[in-house]
Design a protein that fits this description.
Elements: E1 9-13, E2 16-23, E3 30-36, H1 44-55, E4 59-63, H2 74-83, H3 86-101, E5 106-116, H4 118-130, E6 134-140, E7 157-163, H5 171-184, E8 189-194, H6 212-229, H7 240-251, H8 265-272, H9 287-292
Parallel strand pairs: 3-4, 3-5, 5-6, 6-7, 7-8
Antiparallel strand pairs: 1-2, 2-4
Helix pairs in contact: 3-4
Length: 299
């Protein structure tokens, strides 16, 4: 067991405090994304994932669910995961959602969430608990050490990445998970399978299962998914501005002038010959003609 957790932010959580690692994009603002750790803890690799998301334009936050503890030993990681109180983890994740939505750098009113291994299971629970506040949920080979949650509150679209040689979350387990989500929540679900084992995205490679090509493809799909689901909608005008905008839309623009009509062929010929232009319109006709409604003056 180690105490090398990467922490740089403190946020309120259920009347107390929770810690995490936060990174903002070079532009200063962007959509918010929660990153949920693997069973190793909030390691340098997880902080690096947060930094990668920030480099792509997101405001990313990884809550520290172990409270500062990390490990590189698989047996110890399994024990930490098994002993993690689900209720406390859920409270810390909910506090992270509140904190990120209230952060000055975050744009939009809905977040994305990405989780890996243990975090791949917790991220689905987070999205189910948060409801409309989470719009996009990405699970990398998620596991559920405490059993699957109720997905009926899920409103986010779901993207999943799983390894075909994964012995922790087998392809059969992933297929069953996909069907369960579809049965309990009417949301879009996309699961992808890769020629790799568990934790294939982790380039720190603690299990010896990192697969660069699969990791690269899964990451590109994740970025595209998050960008498309977290795009900022155009603001709609309100009050009088909305009424004026609607009227302009019906008129095809504000006070649009009709295009000028080109002179006919006969008028162009008369102008070229130097003849005076023939009067046109109702004002050019005699008063009696206009009153009678005739097109030509009386003979």
């Amino acid at each position: 067991m180690e105490s090398g957790s990467r922490q740089n932010v403190v946020f309120p959580s259920n009347g107390g405090e929770a810690h995490g690692y936060l990174a903002t994009p070079p532009g200063g603002t962007g959509p918010g994304v929660i990153v949920v750790q693997e069973w190793w803890g909030l390691t340098d690799h997880m902080a690096d994932v947060v930094d990668r998301l920030a480099a792509e334009g997101f405001v990313a936050l990884a809550p520290d669910l172990y409270g500062g503890t990390t490990t590189h030993d698989a047996e110890e990681a399994g024990r930490l995961m098994a002993e993690l109180p689900v209720e406390r983890a859920a409270r810390d994740l909910a506090g992270a959602v509140d904190f990120l939505l209230g952060h000055e750098a975050v744009t939009g009113e809905r977040l994305g969430a990405v989780g890996f291994c243990m975090g791949g299971g917790f991220v689905l629970q987070l999205a189910a608990d948060a409801g409309e506040r989470v719009a996009a949920c990405v699970s990398f080979y998620g596991v559920f050490p405490h059993g699957q949650p109720d997905f009926s509150g899920l409103r986010a679209e779901v993207l999943g990445h799983f390894g075909e040689q994964d012995t922790f979350t087998t392809p059969e387990d992933a297929a069953q998970l996909e069907q369960t989500i579809r049965d309990q929540a009417a949301v879009e679900v996309q699961f992808h399978f890769y020629p790799a084992g568990h934790a294939f995205y982790n380039d720190a490679n603690p299990l010896g299962t990192h697969e660069p090509d699969s990791a690269r493809l899964a990451w590109l799909r994740t970025l595209e998914f998050l960008r498309s689901r977290l795009a900022r909608p155009a603001r709609r005008p309100r009050g009088r501005r909305a009424g004026r905008a609607a009227r302009r839309g019906r008129r095809g623009g504000a006070r649009a002038r009709p295009p000028r009509r080109r002179p006919g062929r006969r008028r162009r010929a008369r102008a070229a010959a130097g003849a005076p232009a023939r009067p046109r319109g109702p004002r050019a006709r005699p008063r009696a003609c206009r009153a009678a409604g005739s097109r030509r003056p009386p003979a």
